[in-house]
Amino acid sequence: MSEPFNPWATPDEDSHQEAEGVPACLHSVAVSSWGVQAGVPVPETALLESHYCEPLGRVGVVGVHGGAGTTTLAHLTGLVDCGHVWPTSFPDANTVICVARTHMSGLHAARRAAAEVFSGAVSGVQVLGCVLIADAPGKRLPRPLAEACRLVRGAFPRVWTLEFSSALRVGETPSRFPRTFVHTITELSELTVERKH
After folding, report:
1. How many domains does the chain have?
2. What's the pTM?
3. Cys-Cys with 141: which of 14, 52, 104, 146 at CB 3.0–4.6 Å?
């Protein structure tokens, strides 16, 4: 059995180098999504409320708990900040990504959000995946958090990770980001809307 993927360990030293700014979008990225999954139990209580809205036209960012980082992520990527609600739309579902921090309550909330959508309890949104934003500096997560992260990875079609940024934490936008950070932000900014009924 292969070693589990560690989202905080980089495969080579080169990825620690910094790149200037976040590059402009040059092309779009298509990410496959899931529909309702058989066997996913419907949660007893809703984690997030659903609010009807017009079609977003772009991918939305949904925070699965307070302080998840949706506003900052939307600012960096050009995606739509949906706050902490499911932005439902009919007949065409709005395409969204979930956002959570890597502390235990954030990781539990991410799994609950996945259960809401993929059990069929929430309709009118198409979830492409989840962005996990590090809640503390460092490359390695403590074992319980690493295990919870692994479970989140199994709950979504795609999971992206963003490392901790001291500058973003205090409301500043640095002129340079780590290369892996730039790569992830660029990929997220290039996500395309996938229309499904």
Report:
1. 1
2. 0.79
3. 146
